[in-house]
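The following block was generated as part of the benchmark described in Methods. Ligand: flavin-adenine dinucleotide.
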Amino acid sequence: MDFTWTPEQEALRAEAREVASDAVRRHGRANDSWINGWSREFAQELGERGWIGLTWPRDFGGQARPAIDRLIIGEELIKAGAPIGAMWFADRQMGPTLMTYGRPDQQAEFLPDILAGRSVWCIGMSEPNAGSDLASLKTMAVRDGDDWVINGQKIWTSFGEVADYCYLICRTSTEGPPHAGISEIIVPMDTPGIEVRPIKDMTTNRHFCEVFYTDVRVPVANLVGTEGGAFKQTMRQLEHERGGIDRLVSNYALYCIARDRADTSDPRVRAEIARLETKYRIGRILVIREVLRQAPSGFSAATKCFCTEHEWDVAQFVARTLGAEATIWNDVTQGLAYAPGYTIMGGTSNVMRNILGERVLGLPR
Ligand SMILES: Cc1cc2nc3c(=O)[nH]c(=O)nc-3n(C[C@H](O)[C@H](O)[C@H](O)COP(=O)(O)OP(=O)(O)OC[C@H]3O[C@@H](n4cnc5c(N)ncnc54)[C@H](O)[C@@H]3O)c2cc1C
């Protein structure tokens, strides 16, 4: 495939690059900045520019711009390490989910603040015994009058400590097969009964958290979509999560640092750089196909797998290039220590391969 960008797209890229480098100057560079880069201020600036909800229909307050524009902006912001964590989940997932499954009153209540970069969302899916096997989740919401009463525990909830809302995936029934009886409920994080315990990971980051729910009451109206029928909704949400540019360029800044320092007089190093550059191009084409909705249904699992395994490869290259220096603690080595997360978050590579085999290729289980 050979393609060129239009002059308007090139101009947008240049603008995004400028915005990104200004943000990095003011806030510092984050590795994997859509999950580790945090600034409410910058999220609101992006909202003012109309860069949140860029592709959403105008009826929902969006800009109705082509999906490729969002890819261009996202690519430049993440490659530079600009702190977009405070808006990314809501822009990528919660907004599209609410537009598809939410009621008009929910859309009116939640979308404007998302668009303005004013509300921060976390995603409460994983539990200590339900990660890949999401259908085995146990956090329970029981109806009591006009409220849901929620009890249970989530883990790895990124931004649990700072979010305004949790998009909670929980069980509202234990009847039938495991994937039945799962619902999605919006939970304001200041509701009494929520206890958040941040987990400090080995990179010293503490974005993900354990979140305990004890008799947490939220209005029945906070249910999104079909009661007990959310498994399909959640799978759709994961499609939004898996096929984007955020899965390819999270550690691109580290790659540039290493590439500039690599000993290119060594043909093995040149071959390695050529291999990584090739994989960047392949990954980008896979992502573009997802963004343009030209990929087969479910294929985002393969895209996520390829792209995040490439990010892991990049980390290995950076480590080899730095040599002994990779053992000194700084922002580069912090990025290296973080690298195992790429192929885990959003669904592990093993699970992505299962999806590809079973759902896309139709192979026997
Ligand atoms: C940086 C980071 C941020 C995260 N943020 C969030 C968040 O905001 N919200 C949230 O809800 N979760 C979040 N997660 C959790 C993430 O979604 C889970 O870690 C992931 O789904 C895997 O689940 P698990 O950790 O329970 O591992 P498990 O499911 O226990 O898997 C353990 C191992 O078994 C393998 N395995 C499991 N099942 C199969 C199978 N059927 N076939 C083959 N192999 C299998 C896996 O590949 C893995 O190697 C985050 C994780 C990371 C690393």
